[in-house]
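Entry 14. Ran structure prediction on the chain below.
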Amino acid sequence: MFDQLETIYERPRPFEVYTADALWTDEHTSAQMLAHHLNEEVDLSSRSGVFIDRSVEWIVSHFGVGKGTKIVDFGCGPGLYTTRLARRGADVTGIDFSKRSIDHARKMAAAEGLSVRYIDESYLELELDDRFDLVTMIMCDFCALSPEQRRTMLQKFHGLLAPGGAVLLDVYSLAAFAGRKELATCEIDLLDGFWSPHRYYGFLNTFTYDEEKVVLDKYTIVEETRTRTVYNWLQYFSPEALEHELNGCGLAVEKRYADVAGSTYNSDHTEFAVVARKR
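Output, structure tokens:
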């Protein structure tokens, strides 16, 4: 038991272990994630429906989205953005490795007679030959990636941009990092049964890495027949750090915003968004 607890409370190096698929491909947790996505009253897995509507209005206006505008959304989930953009006539591609979310998105598109291409695959491994007017990665998905993975994605974005095309992504800020604290807790059925339909003991260990500006929420789920660990990493950015990564992949920041609805940038805000184009 002592050795097991030592493992549970062990602090790994930043991004040493990566288990994103555990959230999105597990039968039970993927259903939980989809339910949170579809609850448009709250900002949790997805932002509220009111915000998404406002965000899409700004995207359509700012980027001149209309009939035939080619857009690709990385980490599209159940199609909350892709569906709305397709309604505006855009030629939309959505990519996500959650089969459950993609299935839902396809059903939504079919019910409305919308032509949206959905790809059920890891965007880290996917290769596309298309060129797009707008590349999006929304809901701070970029922050869940390691430095190497982020570089891979930015290089993909660079290669996918049509002449004059743009990238829109959002990230967590250093103001948000300042609010994160280390903690350790254990509960029966932690997060109200999110992790399993069966009884379990859930350990949550939150580690902060001040030098790297990274936070890890490490979940250890102990069930009767198995024990598993899920590592939820988040990178937090200063505007300068994000711009440095973009510049390193041939992308230049055109403008900075408080969010993907075009709100005025504020350094005290917990998130910020950028529009970038090829250098």
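The first strand starts at residue 70 and ends at 74. Will compare against last week's run tomorrow.
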